[in-house]
Amino acid sequence: MRIPIIIISAVLLAGCLRQDKTSGMVDNVFADALWITDSTDLPDKDSMFYADYPAPLFRKEFRIDSPVEEARLYITAAGYYLASLNGQDVGEVVLDPDWTDFSKRIYFREYDLSNLITGGENCIGVTLGNGFYNPLPLRMWGHLNLRQKLTVGKPAFIARLVIKYTDGKEEEIVTDSTWKSAPGPLMKNSVYLGTVYDARMELKNWNKKAFDDDSWSRAVVAGSPGGKLIKAIAPPVKIVSEIQPEKIYLSTPGRWIVDMGKNFTGTYHIKLSGQRGDTINFRFGERIYDDGSLNPMTAVAGQIKRKGLGGPGAPDIAWQSDSYIIGDSTERYFTPGFTYHTYRYMEISGLRYKPDIHDVKGLFIHSDVDNRNTFSCSSPLLNSIQEATERTFLSNLVSVQSDCPAREKFGYGGDLNATAESFIYNFDMHDFYRKTVYDWIDAINDSAFVDTAPFVGINYCGISWESAFLLTQYYLYLYYNDVKIVEELYEFNKKWMEKVAAIHPDLLVDSGLSDHESLKPVPVELTGTCHYLQCARVMAEFASLMDDKEYEQRYKELALKLTELLRSEFWDKPVKGDINRQTLFSALLYHDIIPADQLGAARDSLLKAIDAAEAGHFITGIFGTKYILDALSEYSPVMVYDIVNSTDYPGWGHMIDRGATTIWETWKESDNTFSNCHPMFGSVSEWFYRWLAGIRPNPEYPGFSRFTIAPATPANLQYVNCTYTSPFGPIGSDWERISKDEYTYYIKIPPGTSADIVLDVKDSQFVIIEKTDGDEQSNITRNSERGNFTLAEGDYTVRVSLKEN
Q1: Contact at 8 Å (CB) between 471 and 485?
Q2: Would you say 25 and 166 are in contact if contact means Cβ atoms under 8 Å apart?
Q3: What number of CA atoms fall less than 13 Å from residue 693's CA on the CB side?
Q4: Tens digit of pLDDT for each residue in 15-66?
Q5: Rounded to an integer, what distance in angstroms lies between the CA atom of residue 220 and that of residue 225?
């Protein structure tokens, strides 16, 4: 019998209010500023949302008569905004603000405009886009209408410009009804379907001084969307790099294909020429068909691929597209705004000529996370897998960590649970994941599990998805020593554990999605209960950190019960049915379910399951792949290397061999249904850092004050070069094979830290350690500790040799 659901809404709200204080909320930043919008009304019928709805322009002139010391703009929107001062864009940020539940929190940014402001007349200009606040009523998969699930409304913005003069006086320009507004040339903008830009409707110099705005309307004061205004904590979304096309060719009469050479997320910058009224159409796809024509189908929004499925007014096929209508300037450059596509191939129609390859650039757009971490090795295939994984990850970082950046763009928790550590190994994810955790706080309710944050109305995946909010907190603690977020959300986390107990009173998780895209079925009772176990262990750690001895013991007891339950259900007795035994045994090993005296039997069972699979490769899904990479490496990292470094199906190398430049959603190639840019199987990158380079955090010393370097050296790999940037600075783990029995390791340990070094050393080998930095250098020879020793901060060369010197 299930016990009643515990009502915790008040506690959830208290948790949200508590976290607002520590995540940058500033009550008086906007002072007397008001939310403003334009005077048009939103459509009252779904079909009308697909008609032209020009993005509104706003302007405000002001005069500067004294020398300015500093000018700072605070601005945000419900939807997207693009701000300018005297015709120059403010900052390099695009697709701002970050996507959130606008009824809970809205992030603002601060810009220094001191160098843009001038003496005399000045003008602030703002354009508003729809973003996720005013989405189209697309019925994704025929039923999910985001307008019915998200906090939505007419785009609006709020801004405050604070001007400090050298004489000590201050002046403020705030949003209110004195601003002027008019429709602009961006006739349509959707994060899913793209844009329509009519250059005939451009208003030249509208965002500069002395523009005649007498015909413009007054801005309309709007109500707040409801969310707390909080200073942005995550890295902004930017155009981070440019991509030069590899070739342009004619696929069918009038249709040019631009091949960017790699799949990515973003837009483009293109020079266009034509006659007034010419319409240039763009479509985008991750693939092409055998005849060279565009295949847009893997990136179609919500799988809307037939008439009527998307609802009234929706296109028959919801592919990514843009249109540009030429105006008075018959030659100019175009870059679409307020949208982003995922594509390698861009189809252009409506041009009267072949576009010059030098007149087209792809613009790679993503959250500007620090990506100083690097991995490379002697295997070209592994390097290609790493490059494709890194590109996939960045393509799925547009203010949320998405599952696919075209078809859905949603922040699914399952993908977060599977790949958070892999993302962290590649990039500095600290601030991004703090924002992600708060998204989950806003999404979680008191009675059912949700699948995404921000919440979009999907809630069938269960604990393995919603638990991402808690496990991500643990990774913030483990990798960055973020104790504050643990302290801040501890009471919330405790109440969430009560919710889990209410939904699963018998402990065994019996509902939800299991090992997504496993090539054989996996019972949710296994993966779901394993995630419950992870949560119990994490909460025991958090309780200890909070010196909450009562709950520490309670969570330890819960973890013990869950361990015994999993052992009983999936190890002590035969598991019947044609299930994925790779996921089964790797999950049990990864989560330390197997008794110590039976580990050999579990390993043998896992090896047997691998041997029975096609090509002797992994057939695991979203979670099993993370588990098997780690569990098998405990016994045979060489075997893992041989599988990863292969082009046979199924595998990452097979994807690369088939031309993939980003990681697929499925092991099996898809040219119609599944995304070709999906982070789920990117857990392999964690394996590169964790096993081939051997860099691992020590849970006893969160934040890498002490850590492990234990590189694996497969026989067919000649070298590895790897750098991971910890909170203390860069950690270096490079190695090269000198001969069959000789290796040289180059190790960098940041100031204030130490590293436990674990090398595979035989009794016949010597370990020579040379400190290569600073004034004090040492040369130590040892052969009694079989490669296990601890090093303090510094740079070292370590040689494993058959000779003593």
Answers
A1: no
A2: no
A3: 31
A4: 333 334 444 455 589 999 999 999 999 999 999 999 999 999 999 999 999 9
A5: 15
